[in-house]
Specification:
about 230 residues; disordered C terminus; eight-stranded mixed sheet; single chain; globular; 8 strands; alpha/beta
């Protein structure tokens, strides 16, 4: 398990509160990523889960924010073109996004938005397309990641749940590491068995678990929660 994220009423780290409990929890995740994966590439990180409601967008947004607050250039991409939620969480406006770029209607520069955290840029999912699986396989996706790897220190990808649709499997070719979000008292055990089988069968590479929505009394023992 890469880290424990305590239950929080906040949806994201705020730029004027870098020492909040929420920021501290994700700062620990950032440090664990650095030391537990010291010998593997970790520039591009993908977030997934078994189903909706487990907090993958919450975790992707907050890890991206904490990384930017540490002085890194970070790009957050909403690649969940079925149920996008990044722009809403970041209080940013809808507009052209990933789907718009993949169908060739705009260029990369037109879909990047600045956030209220210095160093953190965001690409929204764009209008929901009728064929997200086919779009994920478009060659322009490779162009996006090749270009953005040159511009940013870290790229955080909020992808679709791996247990429901196939887009995440397509995106695996562009990721360095996958973070699988498990929500306490919500994610069924059979989902964990499923991801273990995919790793064992070679369908998925390295996967780190992130335990989300941990009650304070449990997280406190791991040093992720202070009153």
């Amino acid at each position: 398990v890469l880290g424990l994220i305590p239950s929080s009423k906040r949806k994201r780290v705020l730029p004027n509160e870098p020492k909040s409990m929420l920021a501290e929890a994700f700062r620990t995740v950032r440090i664990n990523l650095q030391y537990l994966n010291a010998n593997v590439p970790r520039q591009v990180l993908g977030f997934t889960s078994s189903s909706s409601g487990e907090g993958k967008t919450f975790c992707a947004v907050n890890l991206a924010g904490v990384m930017a607050l540490s002085g890194k250039r970070v790009l957050l991409i909403d690649a969940d073109m079925r149920r996008p939620n990044v722009l809403k969480t970041m209080d940013l406006s809808d507009g052209p996004g990933l789907s718009t770029f993949l169908i060739g209607e705009t260029d990369l520069g037109s879909i990047i938005q600045k956030s209220d955290i210095v160093g953190l840029d965001v690409i929204g999912a764009g209008p929901i397309p009728p064929n997200p699986s086919e779009l994920a396989e478009d060659p322009r996706m490779a162009e996006l990641f090749t270009t953005m790897r040159q511009r940013y220190d870290h790229i955080i990808v909020d992808a679709s749940p791996i247990g429901l649709v196939s887009e995440f499997v397509v995106l695996l070719g562009y990721l360095d590491l996958s973070l699988y979000v498990v929500r306490e008292r919500h994610t069924p055990r059979r989902a964990l068995r499923s991801i273990n089988e995919m790793v064992a069968n070679g369908k998925v590479g390295r996967v780190d678990l992130l335990l989300n929505d941990v009650k304070a009394e449990r997280a406190q023992g791991y040093g992720y929660y202070t009153k």
